């Protein structure tokens, strides 16, 4: 049986998450947490309902899952709001650890599409100060650290996504304008800039994905090859949405990778 608990991490209607917990034996502890971050090209018409089936499925398979909602570009998000929310939402787990017997030594993010971008970006939070974490973004030094990421056809190369004009200017929409106007902001928001990362990233990509091109994962993996923990490209069958269809092979591969990172 799965137990669900909703919590706010801020005052905005979009600043909340829902914890999905499998049954525990008396005195037991959940072995790590998976943070589910939904996609939708950072736009407000897509919300945490996309991540809900994944969080439920994770809990059904014995994993504690935190389905995270956040402000998107157009409902108070963008820069720096969306990014601030992802960090604050992950950090909320610290307050939930004791009441829900969560072991935060392993916290893995599972992000789809734009959520993959945010998941991998959050894994690089320690590098943000080196990049010059200005422009309104506040980064806590003692935040909850991600120990691994499974990106599901993530938008992992923002400069390339802007060049390709993915989803009718989604990158400029997220960041308040083009990189020619906000070069520092674009650099800080790009997971490519935080390479090399010190945590494992599985860049899973669907073979028939027409929404997010394979180059988004492939160029990221190539750029990180020389790092201490090289990212890994994993190809799976299906289209963009097979990755969040809990009955599809593409998703099951992602779930298995999350389980591997939590063990």
| C-alpha-based Rg, rounded | 17 Å
Q: How many distinct domains?
A: 1
CATH-defined superfamily = Alpha/Beta hydrolase fold, catalytic domain
Structural class: alpha/beta
If strands are numbered along the chain, what order do they take across the biggest sheet?
1-2-4-3-5-6-7-8
Strand content: 15-25%
Q: What shape does the CA trace take?
A: globular
Helix content: 25-40%
CATH class: Alpha Beta
CATH architecture: 3-Layer(aba) Sandwich
Record field, number of beta strands: 8
Number of helices: 10
Q: Secondary-structure element sequence?
A: EEEHEHHEHHEHHHEHEH
What is the name of the CATH topology? Rossmann fold
Average pLDDT: 95
Low-confidence stretches: none
In whole angstroms, the N-to-C terminal distance is 22 Å
Largest sheet: 8 strands, mixed
How would you describe what is shown here?
Strands 1-2-4-3-5-6-7-8 form an eight-stranded mixed beta sheet, sandwiched between helices. The chain is globular. 31% of the residues lie in helices and 17% in strands. The chain has one domain: Alpha/Beta hydrolase fold, catalytic domain (Rossmann fold, 3-Layer(aba) Sandwich), CATH 3.40.50. With 263 residues, the protein is α/β, with parallel strands linked by helices. The two termini are 22 Å apart. A hairpin with a 7-residue loop joins strand 1 and strand 2 (16-22). It is built from ten helices and eight strands. The longest helix has 14 residues, at 249-262. The chain has helices at 52-60, 81-91, 93-97, 114-123, 128-131, 158-163, 170-175, 183-189, 215-223, 249-262, and strands at 2-8, 16-22, 33-37, 64-68, 107-112, 148-152, 201-206, 232-236.
């Amino acid at each position: 049986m799965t137990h669900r608990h909703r919590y706010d991490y801020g005052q905005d209607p979009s600043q909340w998450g829902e914890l999905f917990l499998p049954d525990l034996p008396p005195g037991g502890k959940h072995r790590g947490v998976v943070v589910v971050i939904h996609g939708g090209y950072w736009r407000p018409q897509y919300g945490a309902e996309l991540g809900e089936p994944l969080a439920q499925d994770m809990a059904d398979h014995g994993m504690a899952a935190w389905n995270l909602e956040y402000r998107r570009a157009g409902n108070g998000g963008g820069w720096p709001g969306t990014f601030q929310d992802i960090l604050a939402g992950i950090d909320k787990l610290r307050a939930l650890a004791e009441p829900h017997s969560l072991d935060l030594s392993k916290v893995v993010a599972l992000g789809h599409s734009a959520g993959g971008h945010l998941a991998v970006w959050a894994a690089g939070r320690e590098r943000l100060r080196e990049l010059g974490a200005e422009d309104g973004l506040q980064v806590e030094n003692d935040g909850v650290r991600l120990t691994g990421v499974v990106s599901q056809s993530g938008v992992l190369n923002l400069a390339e996504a802007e060049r390709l004009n993915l989803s009718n200017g989604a990158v400029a929409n997220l960041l308040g304008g083009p990189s020619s106007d906000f070069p520092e902001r674009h650099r800080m928001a790009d997971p490519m800039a935080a390479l090399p990362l010190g945590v494992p990233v599985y860049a899973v990509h669907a073979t028939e994905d027409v929404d997010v091109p394979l180059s988004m994962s492939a160029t990221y993996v190539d750029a990180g090859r020389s790092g201490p923990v090289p990212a890994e490209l994993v190809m799976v069958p299906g289209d963009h949405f097979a990755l969040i269809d809990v009955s599809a092979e593409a998703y099951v591969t992602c779930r298995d990778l999350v389980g591997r990172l939590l063990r």
